[in-house]
């Protein structure tokens, strides 16, 4: 429980920092809303379905990416401005980190639910379905960005964050897909060990 309280506290502190003089409050609200909703859902479902510590730590990192992006906007994060200048990139690519995490973290959440609820028993099908879920989440988010941009006009441009890149939507979905695959490749074994330990303690 100590870890959970620590993660919640860090999330709250980061959210407070992010809300202090952000680049634009409307964009800030749009960017941090998924993080706030995610934290609320995990908080209210904690007693009924407690995830492994690995998943909660990953959720914190994902929330941090969203909250930092909300403060600066995804096109103006200072570290990625420096990377852009140093590597001669044509745009600030912080949003690609965000979309990579958008596949990476939900993949582990979906994987845990599917395993612990015994929805999928074969590993090959499990990996396929997890990647499909991550892709579906990414596509849905792109629909939301599109709808917000159309309904708010210039007010939604910072939220959309294409920075003039015509293939931004497609590359966002690609990064999310790659993120999901990387998560499965590198964290599945550690995740399995945590699930076994967690279920034995419950």
Summed up, the helix count is: 8
Overall mean pLDDT stands at: 91
**C-alpha Rg (nearest Å):** 17 Å
Biggest sheet character: none
Tell me the β content. under 5%
The total number of structural domains is 1
What is the ordering of alpha helices and beta strands? HHHHHHHH
Distance between the termini: 13 Å
Judged by helices, strands and strand pairing, the structural class is mainly alpha
What's the overall geometry? globular
Uncertain stretches: none
Helix content range: over 70%
Number of strands: 0
What does this structure look like?
With 202 residues, the chain is an all-alpha fold. The protein has one domain (2-201). The chain is built from 8 helices and no strands. It has helices spanning 2-19, 25-44, 53-72, 78-87, 94-116, 123-152, 157-160, 168-201. The two termini are 13 Å apart. The model has no long low-confidence stretch (mean pLDDT 91).
Brief rundown of the structure:
With 202 residues, this protein is an all-alpha fold. The protein has eight helices and no strands. The longest helix is centred in the C-terminal third of the chain and has 34 residues.
Which features does this protein show?
202 residues; mainly alpha; 8 helices; 0% strand
Give the secondary structure arrangement, pairings included:
Elements: H1 2-19, H2 25-44, H3 53-72, H4 78-87, H5 94-116, H6 123-152, H7 157-160, H8 168-201
């Amino acid at each position: 429980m100590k870890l959970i309280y620590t993660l919640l506290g860090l999330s709250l502190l980061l959210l407070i920092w992010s809300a202090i003089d952000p680049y634009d409050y409307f964009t800030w609200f749009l960017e941090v809303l998924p993080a706030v909703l995610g934290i609320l859902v995990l908080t209210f479902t904690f007693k009924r379905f407690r995830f492994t510590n690995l998943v909660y730590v990953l959720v914190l990192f994902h929330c941090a990416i969203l909250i930092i992006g909300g403060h600066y906007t995804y096109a103006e994060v200072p570290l990625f401005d420096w990377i852009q200048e140093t590597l001669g990139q044509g745009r600030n690519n912080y949003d690609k980190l965000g979309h990579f995490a958008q596949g990476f973290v939900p993949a582990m959440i979906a994987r845990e639910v599917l395993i612990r609820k015994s929805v999928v028993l074969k590993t090959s099908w499990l990996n396929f379905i997890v990647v499909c879920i991550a892709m579906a989440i990414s596509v849905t988010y792109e629909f939301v960005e599109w709808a917000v941009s159309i309904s708010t006009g210039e007010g939604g441009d910072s939220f959309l964050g294409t920075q003039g890149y015509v293939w931004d939507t497609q590359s966002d979905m690609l990064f999310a897909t790659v993120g999901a695959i990387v998560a499965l490749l590198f964290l599945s074994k550690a995740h399995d060990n945590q699930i076994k330990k967690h279920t034995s303690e419950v």
